[in-house]
Amino acid sequence: MNAPTKDTRRSGTWICIATAAVAAVVYFAARGLLENPALRPPLRTVIALVPVPFFLFFLLTELRLMRRLDELERHIQLEALALAFPAVLLLLLTLGLVELATPLSPADWSYRHVWIYCLGFYGIGVAVARRRYQ
Amino acid sequence: MKNALRVLRAERNWSQADLAERLSVSRQTVNAIETEKYDPSLPLAFKIARLFGKLIEDVFEPEEPARVEREELET
């Protein structure tokens, strides 16, 4: 099997970005709807689960893109995850302990706030790894 | 790992992008190998050697002599 060309890798990147953007739009739309207290269960639960297929589709396109990357880029992604995963674990463990020590406001420290740190740690990991091989 | 990639590429007047295209990798990968910041996988190392019509050990050289070579030097 031939290795993917630069063009197919580039188109894969754009497809991945597009699916991530669609998933983000659906997520924020669902979040916006759920902030309306007039909506009642089970409709609230249905709305909360609407983004799941979009996230799964993003996951599939992202995995497909990873398989198209060349070996250095895969190495960079691996190093980024090696930094991001323990960092997220550390954050969650620390938040868990802080929550036991003092009540954290759910308005600031809930699941819907912490995910951004996962992205942030991953971004830092990619930047650090990329810089190493420049 | 030391390598002669830059010299071999220059002999053929290829840019990093030309070489990257021939190897189906990114230009960044070629640059990282040339600057010895990244050691290629064995399949890629073989592909590079074949592309230049060389043996793998003519293109890549370990930083330290191999253990067998060291033992020979010591005896």
Detailed description of the structure:
Chain A is 80% helix and 0% strand. Chain A is built from 5 helices and no strands. Chain A starts with 5 loop residues before the first helix and ends with a helix. The mean pLDDT of chain A is 89. Chain B has a single domain (2-55), classed as 434 Repressor (Amino-terminal Domain) (Orthogonal Bundle). Helices cover 60% and strands 5% of the residues of chain B. A two-stranded antiparallel ribbon of chain B has the order 1-2. The model of chain B has no long low-confidence stretch (mean pLDDT 89). The interface between A and B is medium-sized, with 14 and 13 residues.
Topology summary:
The complex is a heterodimer of chains A (134) and B (75).
Chain A: H1 6-34, H2 43-49, H3 51-68, H4 71-101, H5 111-132
Chain B: E1 2-3, H1 5-11, H2 16-23, H3 27-34, H4 42-51, H5 56-59, E2 60-61, H6 67-74
Antiparallel strand pairs in B: 1-2
CATH topology of chain B: 434 Repressor (Amino-terminal Domain)
Structural class from helices and strands of chain B? mainly alpha
Radius of gyration of chain A, whole Å: 18 Å
Strand content of chain B: 5-15%
Major sheet summary line of chain B: 2 strands, antiparallel
Gross geometry of chain A: flat
Mean pLDDT of chain B: 89
Considering the chains and any ligands shown, give keywords for the structure:
heterodimer, A: 134 residues, mainly alpha, B: mainly alpha, two-stranded antiparallel ribbon, 2 strands, 5% strand
Offer a quick outline of the entry.
The complex is a heterodimer of chains A (134) and B (75). Chain A is mainly alpha-helical.
